[in-house]
Fold:
Amino acid sequence: MSTVYNWHLGRKMKYPYQAAYPKRQFAFVFNINRCIACQTCTMACKSTWTFSKGQEHMWWANVETKPYGGYPQFWDMKILRLLDKANQGKQDWSGRVSDDPKRPYGQFDGKTIFEAERMLTPSSTRVLGYLPTDEEWNFPNIYEDNPVGPPGKRFQYHKTGVKLPEHKTWFFYLARICNHCTYPGCLAACPRKAIYKRPEDGIVLVDQKRCRGYRKCVEACPYKKVMYRGNTRISEKCVACYPRIEGKDPESGGQPMETRCMAACIGQMRLQGLVKMNGDGTWAEDRYNPLYYLVHVAKVALPLYPQFGTEPNGYYIPPRWVPREYLRQMFGPGVDEAIERYAYPDRELLAVLQLFRRSHLIIFRYEVKEGPKIYETTHRGRKLTVYNDTAIAYGQNGKEIFRTTVEEPIYVRPAKHANTI
Ligand code: SF4
Ligand code: SF4
Structure:
């Protein structure tokens, strides 16, 4: 058991393993406002890593419709309920959202999955969790596009002659992969020490030779991103497409490349990178790394369920149309500020948002070159001005990867050929 600093929680925390921090950490930002649930990411992962016998039910990358969908079903509701059982009514935050990178969301005063386990079963030293049932793994996209209307009214509107109700229901798409957590629950729970975090990029892997299939990792991962393979009797999980991160993809020219699920994203909602780490697990200041900017400067991207305590390295720009209480439970206290900033972006944020999915190479630094004013409006009493700035992305070797403008250019093709459609 060690005491570690968890900057998502703004405090120290007990962790049932030794903490070891990588030099750089695999991390990503998903903009929920842009996801269209086309599942291209899901299939890109499936066709790369989990197409073999025994992996039929495995979806290392998945996109679920919230609030009712989930893979495995009810994963977040179940772990939230367990945490509440251990620490009833006290899973609260205090303090204020601030510019302090060591405490950006105030302080979490409740119990994490590492602390709550000992409250439920005092003799245990490991992690609070549960094993999903086979049935819960059966339906990877249950409740897709389903906001669930009033019970008993489905298909009956035409019979009763009632008017359709005002649109008060809501849903959104939550794309998920393993978060390659800084304090992984899966790693801490493994009695075989078969799970490890790579020192060069923080990617969390299961050593297939050491694993004996006890499924302690499946039980302990609060995000349920380790999966058991019945025919080999060992556990498997997302490998963050590490050959691509290492620059081994033949198309990368030796430069670090984003994972398959990121590169395939049709909605252009994914941006992945490698962030520099301090010796205590916090992010080293790197002002012009786009991930550092989105998480620590613009503060539009927030961790998924930070209260679990694993310090996940996946960050989300929350959806604007969803009740705030629900979002605060999912992304912590930074939600209101994040949505406000995203809805009324400043000049730099608007330029950085253009960096998503213009290239498959990992962006290590960006620069913004100012352009002319192209649009001005007032929305809900707030003035919004748009400039046609240019965002320039640089790779690991310091060379420019691409440049793109805020206003999408229009190309008019010469009318050389008759339109055959
Ligand atoms: S998301 Fe789960 S599987 Fe991935 S590193 Fe964290 S605890 Fe482990
Ligand atoms: S490919 Fe992109 S837009 Fe499509 S479901 Fe996946 S995350 Fe959403």
Notes: Residues 2-146+170-342 form a domain with the Alpha-Beta Plaits fold (CATH 3.30.70.20). The chain has a mean pLDDT of 93.
